[in-house]
Amino acid sequence: MALLDIKNLHARVEETGMNILKGVNLTINPGEVHAIMGPNGSGKSTLASVLAGREDYEVTEGEVLYKGQDLLEMEPDERAREGVFLAFQYPVALPGVSMSNFLKQAVNSMREHRGLDELSAGDFLKLMREKAQLVHLDPSFLRRAVNEGFSGGEKKRNEIFQMAMLDPTLAILDETDSGLDIDALRIVADGVNKMRAPDRAFLVITHYQRLLDYIVPDIVHVMVDGRIVKSGDKTLALELEEKGYDWIREETVAA
Amino acid sequence: MSQTGTDYLHAVAASDYKYGFVTDIEADTAPKGFNEDVIRLISAKKEEPEWMLAWRLKAFRYALSLIEDKSRYPRWAHLTYPDIDFQDISYYSAPNKKPKYESLDEVDPKLLETFERLGISLEEQKRLAGVAVDVVMDSVSVHTTFKEQLAELGIIFCSFGEAVQNHPELVQKYMGSVVPYTDNFYAALNSAVFSDGSFCYIPKGVRCPMELSTYFRINQAGTGQFERTLIIAEEGSYVSYLEGCTAPMRDENQLHAAVVEIIAHKDAEVKYSTIQNWYPGDAEGRGGVYNFVTKRGLCEGDGSKISWTQLETGSAITWKYPSVILKGDHSVGEFYSVAFTKGRQQADTGTKMIHIGKHTKSTIISKGISAGQSQNSYRGLVKINKNAHHARNFSQCDSMLLGDRCGAHTFPYIEINNHTAQVEHEATTTKVGEDQIFYCNQRGISEEDAIKLIVSGFAQEILAKLPMEFAVEARKLLSIELEGSVG
């Protein structure tokens, strides 16, 4: 069974009524890494938001099955507890809420959902230290408030660190590469690669091919004007890098 | 705010007070009315010396003149409530039977049960190292612990009534020296009818080895509570004082008008922490406590320091401005406050920092959280006198709104009469963002837990200033207050 099955998904901005997604079809199997590329405004981030359950968007048509269940029926926190993780493009600051306090709550709500006991303070600390190493975060940052005063690079590494802490089944990375220098990009990609596993799938959204040099995808999709117009292997990303998006647009219009 | 978010916040705003119950103890209550007979009755009941009665009567005459002239009530606050009928209140109530107990065995079991239900059992408190407890139930001190250990250091920690009997020279010297009975109407009222309270004296050079703690309770239907606290810190001494309270459910409004006076001599430091959780009234605002408090500290000596830290969650109406008069050179005043209002609660709270001495320094950090249809105001005055050379103040007032029917207001007043002063003021107003809640949701945290997390994060800077055990209690209280229809 596919892990994620998106069929003919249409969605619009709730406030303005503007249609963004115009019939997305996408199937992701466990263990696969999919990349979605596309020009600005094509709907890549909207797809990520709709999958995570952000309420700014309204689904007008289509369905999304996750582990065979209707994902769109679930509340955002339910989806998260079922293993859907979104690495935010713009992580939000929570002033005064320490990273460790925040993650303790997150981890324990996940564990409760899975019928596990709360982690002891010692085990939790150990887990945090171990996972922080994955993205080269200094343990002292665990005492800081969530994303408050974090640099761009720290915020993105923090997203990957949280992903490692929460051990998701489907991880969606929304332009995690944006604003990263090459060293930070390597660290982030390295963290993701270490987490690749047969029962975990990734949906990597990016504007640039650069990230895919480090996180090598199984399948690359191109999104234009709210639809996936082309899919292929990793060479498609290279082709896009070389030719830009215009040839795809022309191809789509011609078809 | 999303639909569910708004619903949740409305549910929070409407949720009931969780500490409402009435203990049934025989009481000794004065008839309603504000008159000379009542003052004499209170003084006689407490077997007070003549000077104390004389002082009460002076305050009484002054208060009476104000009652008769409504134009002289304090009216500045951003509060609305009906005029109080001061003749319709009973001004004295004492738990019956023996007023003093030597051990817990002698205490009315129902009283102990009340404290246990509030989570402040004396048995437990006794075991908690480092906390001496002076419990004030209604008007008479019922129990005092750790007094002997303190006495060895020369520290006096007792009820106000005992201090009047045993330490008249100290009471006469300091009572009314920081808050004169002419200060404001409620101070005058308190001075006339105060029933009891706490007295604390730290001798020269002594560092009080434990947190001193008092729990106040209103327990008698229809009686006001008029506590009076006096803290004197002699040269080079230190004390941390805790005041916390919850109150049982009421049908009619209860007037609470306390006075707290602190005197810090040269290089002395007093840290005063409060958790205020009086009954706030039902969802329509009926029956809550009116909390009109005058709290003021005097940094009398050079290098002295007074800090006020408070978590205000209770009362239908809170009117309270813990202040510091910075008289000594290089003295320091601090005010750290979290005020949470919901339902129909109204709070008008803040501070006054009066800089008189040279190189005096004050810090004000106020966090207001408003939910439901509540109104939450910060009101503060920073005054730099002519001779207060190189005085410094930093003020920060942050407001957080939960939902769309509440109000947050900031009224900062600044008076500067010396050009060497350095005064900074910052103010922010935020709403709990939908994006913040979504971020938490995406990590598996429910909406209710997300709001609790965000609000406690907002208040964290202040709660961290409370003594450890108190901080734990404060976080718990804030979390309970934020709970929706659950439980």
Q: What keywords describe this structure?
A:
heterodimer, A: 255 residues, alpha/beta, Rossmann fold, 4-stranded antiparallel β-sheet, 38% helix, 28% strand, B: 487 residues, 11-stranded mixed β-sheet, 10-stranded mixed β-sheet, 12 helices, 23 strands, globular
Model description:
The complex is a heterodimer of chains A (255) and B (487). In chain A, α4 packs across α5 (152-166) and α5 runs parallel beside α6 (182-195). Chain A is an alpha/beta fold. The longest helix of chain A is centred in the middle third of the chain and has 15 residues, at 99-113. Chain A has a six-stranded mixed β-sheet, sandwiched between helices. A four-stranded antiparallel β-sheet of chain A has the order 2-1-4-5. The model of chain A has no long low-confidence stretch (mean pLDDT 91). The two termini of chain A are 31 Å apart. Chain A has a single domain (4-254), classed as P-loop containing nucleotide triphosphate hydrolases (Rossmann fold, 3-Layer(aba) Sandwich). In chain A, β1 and β2 (19-28) form a beta hairpin. In chain A, 38% of the residues lie in helices and 28% in strands. In chain A, 44% of the residues are buried. Chain B is α/β, with parallel strands linked by helices and 487 residues long. Chain B has one domain (5-486). Chain B is 26% helix and 34% strand. Chain B has helices spanning 3-14, 36-45, 50-67, 109-117, 122-127, 147-152, 160-166, 168-174, 185-193, 434-442, 447-463, 468-482; strands spanning 27-29, 93-95, 131-137, 140-144, 156-159, 198-202, 211-217, 228-233, 238-246, 254-256, 259-264, 269-277, 289-299, 305-312, 317-320, 323-326, 332-341, 346-355, 361-370, 375-384, 392-401, 407-416, 422-431. In chain B, strands 5, 6, 8, 10, 11, 13, 15, 16, 18, 20 and 22 form an eleven-stranded mixed β-sheet that branches. Chain B has a ten-stranded mixed β-sheet with strand order 4-3-7-9-12-14-17-19-21-23. In chain B, a hairpin with a 2-residue loop joins β3 and β4 (140-144). In chain B, α3 packs antiparallel against α9. Chain B is globular.
